[in-house]
Design goal:
With 127 residues, this protein is mainly α. The chain contains five helices and no strands. It has helices spanning 2-23, 29-47, 50-56, 64-108, 113-125. It is elongated and about 75 Å long.
Length: 127
């Protein structure tokens, strides 16, 4: 019984935390929806653990806890793959933007910020 209460309170705390991050605009909506859905799913399962056992039996899984752990691992694997995809996409976009900026600077004849910093250091070193 105590584990049920701790799990339920934890799920509610995570739900409240996600809502607060979303309210402060510190978490994008596309990620917030995912975590809110997970929290909303976990809350009833936390307070009514027999639901996981009833769901596990027809699937041939001995325990509801095993089903929850398996689904948790699959979920985390999917989140990891998605975030890896996002990082790869953003790296490509950053590289493209840096190339475009370099081309624009060369067309305008403006020096790069690193060149300006080197010139300032050289001027500071002169007597």
């Amino acid at each position: 019984m105590k584990l049920t209460v701790v799990t339920g309170v934890t799920a509610l705390a995570i739900l409240a935390f996600m809502v607060e991050l979303l309210r402060r605009r510190q978490l994008q909506e596309k990620y917030a929806i995912l975590w809110l859905a997970v929290s909303v799913l976990i809350v009833p399962l936390a307070f009514f653990p027999f639901l996981t056992d009833n769901l596990a039996k027809p699937l041939g899984i001995v325990s509801g806890v095993s089903l929850v752990l398996f689904l948790g691992i699959v979920f985390l694997l999917l989140v990891t793959v998605h975030l890896s995809w996002e990082v790869s996409r953003l790296e490509e976009e950053t590289r493209t933007l840096a190339e475009d900026l370099a081309l624009l600077r060369s067309e305008l004849g403006q020096p790069r910020p690193q060149d300006l910093a080197a010139q300032e250091v050289a001027l500071d070193d002169q007597p």
